[in-house]
User: Which sequence fits this backbone?
């Protein structure tokens, strides 16, 4: 296993992070996975044996069952790992059982600590944007948790670039604990965050945790253009995240010979592509079975050549949009000896 510095912090996290969204399986989460405590513990132990030191969950996953199972599985190994969870989702039927208000955050952090069987959370992330609660209220509540020692770092998930930058600016101005990371969707078939978020993450030195690196299983190579796929697969039951499937299958076709040459799965190539992106700190992998987990773990050993990376980049590159194409053009010729994007400069 290899490890990366996590954003601008002093901690190092494994390139692969085990996501516990499949633990439990109550309500909506049944389509994601239905793992019991024994199977969850087996997956956690295998990850620890492989050198994984990063584990991610959320209070809303199976309404607390995921945290409970992960906490039990890690109970005797707590000091070895970086443990992350999230807050924002609806946890009950009452008006204040959702969001990022001070009340909801304080209520939920105590619940998460109990379920995880720990007295601190390494990374506490907001699970999205709350259009109702003032951002200052959310950031002050998170800062108080850091000062109290209940939380060591704070992060964000599923934010737009302007939302994330507004939060960072407020934290800097008010002297509050700053988001150190973003958890976001990113795949070789879905590179949208490269438009605005990647430049922000690099500029502000934030870590990036990638969720759904296989686009809900589509990039496993087990699906056909006609829509046929493994029986009981997540993508077959829950067609998410949204993907341009015609483009995705062109990319999958290009990855198949790369996988065959190395005797690995197409999924390994898709995850390896992410691990070759310098902005990525850790890729969150989830598995319904130990066999799936073993396959995902092999991704860290896959090295892609410059030619292969260039081929995948050509197939998956974003369509140029304004202002990105203007920014890129204006920066041509900025360094001595480089040609200008607007012809010879006077």
Assistant:
């Amino acid at each position: 296993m290899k490890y990366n510095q996590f954003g601008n912090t002093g901690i190092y996290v494994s390139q692969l992070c085990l996501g516990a969204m499949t633990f439990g399986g109550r309500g909506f989460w049944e389509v994601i996975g239905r793992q019991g405590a024994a199977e969850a513990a087996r997956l956690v132990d295998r990850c620890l044996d492989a050198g994984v030191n990063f584990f991610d969950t959320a209070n809303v996953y199976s309404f607390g069952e995921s945290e409970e199972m992960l906490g039990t599985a890690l109970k005797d190994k707590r000091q070895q790992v970086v443990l992350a969870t999230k807050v924002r989702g609806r946890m009950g039927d009452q008006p204040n059982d959702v969001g990022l208000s001070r009340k909801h955050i304080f209520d939920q952090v105590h619940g998460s600590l109990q379920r995880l069987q720990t007295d601190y959370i390494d990374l506490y992330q907001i699970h999205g944007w709350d259009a109702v609660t003032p951002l200052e209220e959310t950031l002050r509540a998170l800062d108080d948790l850091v000062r109290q020692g209940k939380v060591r770092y704070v992060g964000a998930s599923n934010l737009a670039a302007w939302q994330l930058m507004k939060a960072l600016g407020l934290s800097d101005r008010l002297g509050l604990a700053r988001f150190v990371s973003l958890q976001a969707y990113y795949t070789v078939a879905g590179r949208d965050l490269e438009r605005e978020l990647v430049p922000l993450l690099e500029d502000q030195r934030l870590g990036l945790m990638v969720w759904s690196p296989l686009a809900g299983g589509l990039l496993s190579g087990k699906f056909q253009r006609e829509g046929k796929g493994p029986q009981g697969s997540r993508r077959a039951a829950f067609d998410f995240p949204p993907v341009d499937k015609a483009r995705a299958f062109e990319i999958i076709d290009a990855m198949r010979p790369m996988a065959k040459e190395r005797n690995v799965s197409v999924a390994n190539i898709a995850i390896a592509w992410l691990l070759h992106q310098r902005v990525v700190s850790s890729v969150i992998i989830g598995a319904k079975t130990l066999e799936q987990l073993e396959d995902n773990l092999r991704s860290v050993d896959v090295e892609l050549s410059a030619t292969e990376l260039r081929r995948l980049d050509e197939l998956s590159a974003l369509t140029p949009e304004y202002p990105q194409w203007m920014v890129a053009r204006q920066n041509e010729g900025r360094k001595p000896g480089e040609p200008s994007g607007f012809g010879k400069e006077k």
Notes: The chain has a mean pLDDT of 94.
